[in-house]
């Protein structure tokens, strides 16, 4: 068994709300400095910077999972995590079909940059990424699972785009693998505050939009093999000695 210090909710400069410092080499350096060895890149409704961060982490101890922070029709944020960039690209194709035909106002909301592994400019994404899609929560979860991914509703306790605050309940048909609480609350506090929360694994991540935020909080996974979607799921379920906890 090996311990992995994980922050599974990080943004890059592809997210309009992220600082310009959130480029692949600096993200990798900061994650390593904070003692992390597992991160996920989860930009809003987008995966275009995933491969750049994976490339920046080559020849280091840091493992990078491809991901996305999807915003559903209900205006609920959901982390969608995958094993490979190819799975993430297939997911992006589906999400593109659900996105509203809106253009980003870079002056008002901030620019959205696709960059390479060195953090150099490749192109600007002009679609408005930080907006609801047309896919509802339950169907989005099923689609992620069909591609072999993990489904983790994000910062469920937050007033903005947090599942419990937006919906006021946990949907009975939602097929989620875990739920993320914000850095502002401990999992035990969340269970006390929301007694209707099901017995689902609760993790925590930084939701970092700036370098200093990376690793501000984390989840620890004890795995029997290198990190993968299957291994993380087994740890969330406590299968054969695998486990997780929030320090």
Explain what you see.
The chain has one domain (2-245): Metal-dependent hydrolases (TIM Barrel, Alpha-Beta Barrel), CATH 3.20.20. 27% of the residues lie in helices and 21% in strands. 45% of the residues are buried. It has helices at residues 24-33, 50-56, 85-98, 106-109, 137-146, 163-167, 187-193, 229-237; strands at residues 2-10, 38-41, 63-71, 77-81, 113-115, 121-124, 150-153, 179-181, 202-204, 219-223, 243-245. It has a 7-stranded mixed sheet with strand order 7-4-3-2-1-10-11, with helices on both faces. Strands 5-6 form a two-stranded antiparallel ribbon. A two-stranded parallel ribbon has the order 8-9. Helix 1 crosses helix 2. The model has no long low-confidence stretch (mean pLDDT 97). The chain starts with a strand and ends with a strand. Strand 1, helix 1 and strand 2 form a beta-alpha-beta unit. The protein has 247 residues and is α/β, with parallel strands linked by helices.
Helix and strand succession? EHEHEEHHEEHEHEHEEHE
CATH-defined architecture: Alpha-Beta Barrel
Distance between the termini: 18 Å
Percent range for helical residues? 25-40%
CATH H-level homologous superfamily name: Metal-dependent hydrolases
Helix count, per DSSP?
8
Q: Determine the structural class based on helices, strands and strand pairing.
A: alpha/beta
